[in-house]
Amino acid sequence: MSPSAVPRPDDAQAPLIAASDLHTWFELRQWGFLRLGAVRAVDGVDFTLAHGEAVAFVGESGCGKSSLARTLLGLHRPTRGEVRFAGRSLGELKGRALKAYRAEVGYVQQDPYGALPPFLDVRRLLAEPLIVHGVRDRAERERRIRAALEEVRLSPAEEYLGKFPHMLSGGQQQRVVIARALILAPRLVIADEPVSMLDASVRVEILELLRHIQCERGLTLAFITHDLSTVRHYAERIFVMYAGRVVESAPVDDLLDHPQHPYTQALLAAIADPDAANATRLREVPAGEPPSLLHPPAACRFHPRCPHFMAGVCDRHDPPDFEPRRRHRSACWLHR
Amino acid sequence: MMGGRWGEGLRELRRYPSALMGLAIIAALVAISFYTVVAIPYSEALAQWRGGEVWQRNPVNAAPVWLDRLAGGGAPRTQVVTSAEAEVEESAFTGGRRLRIPLAFDYEAEQFPSELTLFLHARGHDQRPFVRLLWQTPDGREVPLGGYRIGAEERISLSQDRALERRLGGLVPHIGLLAEPGMTAERAAEAAPSVLPGRYTLLMDVLLFDEAARVDAELVLYGRVHGLAGTDHQRRDLSLALLWGTPVALAFGLLAAVGTTVTTLVIAAVGVWYRGWVDATIQRLTEVNMILPILPILVMVGTLYSTSIWLMLGVVVVLGIFSASIKMYRAMLLPIREAPYIEAARAYGASNARIVLRYLIPRILPVLIPTFVTLIPTFVFLEASLAVLGLGDPLLPTWGKVLNDAQSQSALYNGYYYWVVSPAVLLMLTGLGFAMLGFALDRVFNPRLRSL
Ligand SMILES: Nc1ncnc2c1ncn2[C@@H]1O[C@H](COP(=O)(O)OP(=O)(O)OP(=O)(O)O)[C@@H](O)[C@H]1O
Ligand code: SF4
Ligand SMILES: [Mg+2]
Fold first, then answer.
1. pLDDT digits (tens, 9 = 90+) for B208-259
2. A186, A310, B125, B284: which could form a disulfide with A106 (CB 3.0–4.6 Å)?
3. CB within 8 Å of chain A, chain B residues 251-290
4. Where are chain B's structural domains?
């Protein structure tokens, strides 16, 4: 199948956010001017997320998931390509429009312990985004803060308003982080490994909460995870990233049951492995060295580790997106 | 770290006796400052410290009263005998009137006065009045002190009357006039002359030649002790300078500490936040500033331009902006810059100014409070050092200027220890108070130090 032969199914729905040919490279310089090269954290990513959709990004550590998230949030300027949100290119947003965009996108960070300023109590830290966005009326702020706390099930709100982050448990802190991400009523929430630093016991609660809010509000939710075993319940689509690229994307069930890309297959095999099965976190990565993003392997980034490596093809030509199954894309020459 | 922790920290302070001591000292200094500023208005303090008329009734270089008490007493305080209290006899003669004014007083102190002066105020005359003086001792001797034709304001310094000194056997008049009979300079060399206690009278015969003329007299027997702090070489009461020195020292220390800390902190945070050339420029400026010697620059400004305390404050703050503490703040702020909550703030659209002022700086404030408290006395000392070097404010009475005067008058060589000790003790108390509080705060806010 040729990559562009079939119309993309998600183009049919109204896209909320779209990345096209997105590159985020970090220049490495010595003494401030000598170029040593670039870390290609995001290296050619294309996708479209529809309104109200929940998607997961998975991939091993250092493959550029957080960099992609930050680029979508507008915290990194893309080196090449663009992010379009509700039809407007992020690169063109300035001043007021950029600030308005920041209210449209909520950010839930990985580490709740560092994500909350330790010197502000819950009321003050939840008031901050409102103040920044010009909600002058104190009573109005108070009302929205309480509503946000109730929404993340920190109730009664009074009990938490005066508390400092260090007085809260990890799960409660993450709920406050979520409340802060939601308080400006965003249309998109990006959660970067929202539960990886939490106790196993509270992970499911937080994921359920995110999923619930996402459905209630009709949010678009993009979350990054290491945990392929639970992703089925919390996302509709999965993007598998490898060395700054999305190598495979598909609806959850299809991807988990019929992985197409050799890298995804290796990932899932690692989960099925009895040794790693009881570990909720993915420790066992496919055999071989993780790729260097400073000098990534030529053509297919996975070829040094791939069991199906085809010399002269995989290391010469970038594999385009094939669609071996319906709505299931995979960038591998095997599907040729 | 803040908010709740501030309260906790302050409560915890109570566990440190040294902190309470420090607080007590600081509270006392603050109380003194408030009292001073209210009781002696600024302009009045400046006017008085300029010296002159106001201090005329004060002895020169008198020790504090309490010092004499410690030494067993015996030193006289200043005694003023006025004609208003005297029984004046008036008689007429052709062409005028004659007043007989006995200025009588009891002298009981063991030591002699330090000086003897008669102040005369004459009013309402066309022709100047004439005064003849006679000294009467308790044992009935009479010493004529001569006659004077007086103007409106006359100051007759008996102590400096050389002729009288010769007549008294070489003893200076304030000793000779009050000594036991038969005492001369030669005998005084063997055994110190002692006071003849009892009732003395300075009998004034005043001849007035006009109907409306009047004369008031004031005999001042200057003491050897004065007030709480003694006096200086210009008869100024040192307590004025010691009192006014307190608010000046505290204000200078506090303003300089606030000025340098706030500017340095903001600049360090701006550098850390913007990185790049902004940070590089700040770093280079700091390095240049670090090798600039602050005291010589202040001396230069003081010598060439003005020694106004406010100018000095400005120079101190300006030189302090790029002080070495920028490096320290930078090191503390760099990891905070990368804190996820800063990234979160960027994600919800907080401005750069907000991030610097509301998220970066508050994070290190608790760590800085102790440093800030211990910084205050260093500026107090700096101001005192400048004053000792002769670069004190030209108008304000300060501790440093008292020390400077003491030094220029060789106070220690002359045995006026109180002149040096009292301002020095106040300076040390200030240093001690802030240091004790600062160290305790350090333990409270930087718990890692607690085990040390
Ligand atoms: N600001 C930056 N400057 C330079 N290099 C960066 C920067 N941010 C990330 N990188 C590099 O980009 C690469 C991708 O990092 P990223 O944090 O996006 O990975 P990740 O997939 O989120 O990993 P993890 O699962 O460990 O969070 C890493 O090699 C990282 O060192
Ligand atoms: S393109 Fe080649 S090397 Fe890359 S994953 Fe597919 S088979 Fe493996
Ligand atoms: Mg990450």
1. 888 888 889 999 999 998 988 888 888 999 999 999 999 999 999 999 999 9
2. A186
3. 280
4. 2-49+237-450, 76-222
